[in-house]
Design goal:
By secondary structure, this protein is an all-alpha fold. It has 2 domains: 37 residues; 148 residues, Lysozyme, CATH 1.10.530. Helices cover 67% and strands 0% of the residues. The chain is built from 8 helices and no strands. The longest helix is centred in the first third of the chain and has 36 residues. It is globular. The N and C termini lie far apart (54 Å).
């Protein structure tokens, strides 16, 4: 009789544990996704510069997630720096286009606020120039010159304004990765 009661208690505990795990999966996964998979770190800077430059904050988060996974000290093999992985020539071009006369140098791209400000301004310029997120992201990754050349190729762009196909596997992968992250942010927030 004692063995039967112990077996029933053990079965009940197992059932309760399974129900609790199922509840955590069903109700806790969105919060887990928000905090861990699609975080919104540095939100004070993302929100500030998103509003100032008219760029969707979820696109900024998607670029940061893809570029550095929110590591402000990230440095790529080719020398891109910070959260949004700015190259020195892109930094100089943005600084010029902003008319920024502050004493900010390329070494300041490890500073999260400056990096997000400059990266967001770069996204703004590229979105204005190319008119759609995917073509702008291709330019963010491969450079404006490459994308302008691709747009002149009728096999890559039917209208000369947006890319129908990205010829670089690396850039295509990058754009797809950012757009998946962007979709994830849009679905969760």
């Amino acid at each position: 009789m004692a063995k039967a009661r112990e077996k029933t208690r053990s079965g009940f505990r197992t059932l309760v544990a399974l129900v609790l795990i199922a509840a955590l999966v069903v109700f806790g996964l969105p919060e887990f996704s928000r905090r861990v998979i699609y975080p919104q770190k540095y939100s004070e800077f993302v929100q500030l510069y998103s509003k100032k430059y008219g760029v969707d904050p979820n696109l900024i988060y998607a670029v940061i997630k893809t570029e550095s996974n929110f590591d402000p000290n990230a440095c790529s093999d080719v020398g891109a720096r910070g959260l949004m992985q700015l190259m020195e020539d892109a930094f100089e071009w943005v600084k010029y286009r902003m008319g920024d006369d502050r004493e900010i140098s390329y070494s300041d791209m490890y500073n999260p606020e400056y990096n997000i400000e400059y990266g967001t301004y770069l996204l703004k310029l590229l979105c204005e120039e190319f008119g759609d997120n995917e073509t702008a992201l291709a330019a963010y990754h491969s450079g404006r010159g490459s994308v302008n050349g691709w747009l002149e190729d009728s096999e890559l762009s039917g209208d000369g304004n947006a890319l129908d196909e990205i010829p670089s596997d690396v850039t295509r992968h990058y754009v797809n990765k950012v757009m998946r992250a962007y979709e994830g942010y849009n679905n969760l927030y």
